[in-house]
Write a structure and sequence with these properties.
- This protein is of the alpha/beta class.
- It is built from 14 helices and 26 strands.
- It has a six-stranded parallel sheet. A six-stranded parallel sheet has the order 21-26-25-22-24-23. Strands 1-2-3-7-8 form a five-stranded mixed sheet, with helices on both faces.
């Protein structure tokens, strides 16, 4: 079904019924169905719309759906609504016929190499009434009435009857997978322009991003599978896809709960989603919820993936629980799992044993190739294949005193703003709290505020740990220095998170006497990569 969810704003109960029947069809027909397909070229109308178009190996069928009772008086068709009132309507058979011809013309124009190759027929669907009126103007074999709509199996038999009718009149070769892909791309192209997430409470930067084919297919996977484990490195679009999934579940009428470890990320998602059916709460506040939801979506799930959290907390908030309920866990098994120390392989195994579908995301849609490479070398973390193209190489600056580091940050900010960057496009990160960081020491003319408090004309600050799930066009990471008691794994985890927040440009401010330690860790990473790849 394309789209996979019936639109919430549609008032047609007849189309909703046909949508459900198509969604639940048995083995035949195996193919694709387009709902509400627009036609910009039509023989009698400036713009037309086809209720449904079905594509199988047997060809294409246009379905014209008419709800309620139907009548014809003196050559004029009428429908009778539930109040008994007659309304004049277009001849559904003529509509279906002209629609099928218009569709064939569109396909001949958009995929000329398939001209004359694919059968295009039509049917009139009357899901609310029986129809046995014979006429020279139509054939009952192309009518699907209430008797054919009693269940999916009956609907499948009716479609087979319609296909047989047209195949006896229009001889065409069966449609193969390549032909189907070409037709799908022509009718409803496999692309999407959607809103990217890069902001925080009170300040959201909107940017149109083209979803990769992998991500588009993932949205379909969400609809078709009740439990999904979505894994991917930083920048592969997990938070972005969570937001899209939440909107689609809500559009289908589901009560949706979105949760994550970070209150900062939760505030941001709540602002972006802004839907009464979507409840966004940080994990620490779930105890305040009193009723179970239909769908649970967890972002940065590696931060809360323990048996205790799954069984004692999340299970009670989901209808059907973790074992049988509908959920999607978005998480990164890379170095991000070491930030909060909450990731449990046993918990992940419990989730897998529910029959969950595992979907790996391997295409990085946030970071440039240079940033992706820097992440790999500096931390050993694999964030997938960078799809954003080339950009500025990350810059490392080395400081010996806080005064020197403050001057470096001031110079970077001055250059960015002079080059046309706006303050809200810049994020500054530190392993230290704001008041202890270099960014609190900047001149008063530079407005740096904690991320949740920053306004449109202010630069956003977050600790590295808080910044998970967030992103920004320009990122400056300061205060990279030795910290007693921090393990090498935690060092690499923080560096991994910090580097991968940047979409376009990145600066790392490293204390000079800390550089040798980072270089040694980087050398170890390079050797490990060479051993794993055999190079």
């Amino acid at each position: 079904m394309i789209p996979a969810v019936f639109p919430r704003d549609s008032s047609s109960s007849a189309e909703r019924k046909v949508f459900r029947l198509l969604s639940e069809l048995p083995a035949y027909p195996e193919g694709m169905a387009f709902h509400s397909l627009g036609l910009m070229h039509h023989p009698t109308k400036p713009v037309s719309e086809l209720d449904f178009v079905i594509g199988t190996m047997d060809g294409l069928l246009v379905l014209e759906v008419k709800g309620g009772a139907i009548a014809q008086h003196e050559g004029v068709f009428f429908s009778r609504d539930r109040h008994g009132v007659l309304h004049g309507i277009q001849d559904p058979f003529t509509q279906a016929d002209t629609g099928s011809h218009a569709l064939r013309g569109q396909l001949d124009r958009l995929v000329p190499h398939l001209k004359g190759e694919v059968m295009v027929g039509y049917a009139v669907v009357l899901p609310d009434t029986s129809f046995d009126v014979q006429s020279t103007e139509w054939d009952l074999d192309v009518v699907i009435d209430v008797r054919d709509c009693r269940d999916p199996a009956a609907f499948a038999r009716a479609l087979k009857r319609v296909y047989t009718f047209w195949q006896e009149r229009v001889v065409r070769r069966p449609m193969n997978g390549r032909m189907a892909d070409d037709i799908r791309q022509a009718l409803r192209p496999e692309f999407e322009r959607a809103v990217s997430i890069s902001g925080v409470a009170g300040e959201v930067e909107l940017q149109q991003l083209a979803l990769t084919e992998e991500q588009y297919g993932f949205i379909d996977t969400l609809v078709l599978n009740p439990r999904v484990l979505c894994t991917g490195g930083a920048g592969t679009g997990k938070t972005f896809l969570l937001a899209e999934a939440a909107r689609r579940f809500a559009a289908a009428g589901d009560r949706v709960l979105v949760t994550c470890h970070s209150p900062l990320l939760a505030d941001h998602l709540r602002y972006v989603l802004n839907d009464a059916l979507i409840n966004v709460q940080p994990f620490s506040r779930l105890e305040s919820l009193t009723s179970a939801v239909d769908v649970l979506l967890v972002d940065e799930a590696q931060d809360i993936m323990t048996l205790e959290h799954l069984v004692d907390v999340l299970d009670g908030h989901l209808s059907g629980g973790i074992e049988k309920g509908r959920w999607v866990m978005f998480y990164d098994r890379n170095l991000q799992a070491h930030i909060h120390g909450q990731f449990s392989p046993e918990a992940e195994s419990l989730l897998r044993n529910t029959g969950a579908t595992v979907v790996p995301l391997t295409r990085n849609c946030r970071n440039t190739r240079e940033i992706a490479t820097w992440t790999r070398v500096r931390t050993g973390g694999d964030i997938g294949t960078a799809m954003s193209g080339s950009g500025l190489p990350p810059r490392e600056l080395y400081w010996a005193s806080q005064t020197e580091q403050v001057g470096m940050v001031a110079d970077i900010l001055r250059d960015c703003l002079q080059d046309g960057a706006t303050p809200s496009e810049i994020a500054v990160l530190s392993s230290l709290p704001f008041r202890e960081s270099v960014f609190s020491r900047l001149p008063g003319t530079v407005a740096v505020r904690p991320w949740a408090e920053a306004g449109p004309g202010q630069i956003r600050f977050a600790t590295i740990d808080e910044s998970k799930g967030m992103e920004s066009r320009y990122v400056i990471v300061g205060d990279l220095q030795a910290q007693p008691g921090i393990t090498p794994e935690r060092v690499m985890a923080r560096l991994y998170v910090a580097i991968t927040r940047a979409r376009a440009a990145l600066w790392l401010l490293i204390r000079k006497d800390y550089l040798a330690e980072l270089d040694q860790l980087a050398s170890d990473n390079v050797q490990a990569i060479k051993r794993s790849t055999g190079t």
